[in-house]
Amino acid sequence: MILWILLLLLILVVFGFGFTMQALWWVAAVLLVVWIVGFAMRGRRGGSRRYGRSRG
User: Fold this and answer.
1) How far apart are CA 14 and CA 6, in angstroms?
2) How far is Cα 56 from Cα 48, in angstroms, rounded to an integer?
3) Residue 36 CA: distances (Å) to CA of 13, 18, 20, 26, 48
4) How far apart (Å, rounded) are the C-alpha atoms in residues 49 and 32?
């Protein structure tokens, strides 16, 4: 009986890990698309911003 419970727990853990990995792949894909769109939008503006420099 304990063997069946351990087997069921192992199946649940593996299923949960697989679902989590699938969700992480989707999150990574969305973040990649957002990064590419942001990179393209920044390129259109010319990228002439100055960071950390004071005027004057």
Assistant:
1) 12
2) 18
3) 34, 27, 24, 15, 19
4) 24
Q: Tell whether pTM > 0.70.
A: no
How far is it, in rounded angstroms, from Cα 34 to Cα 27?
11
Task: Output the tens digit of pLDDT for each of the chain's 56 residues.
Answer: 888 888 888 888 888 888 888 888 899 999 999 998 888 887 766 555 555 555 65
Distances (CA, A) of 41 to 1, 34, 50, 55: 60, 10, 17, 26
CA 13 to centroid of chain Cα atoms: 21
SS3 state of residue 43: helix
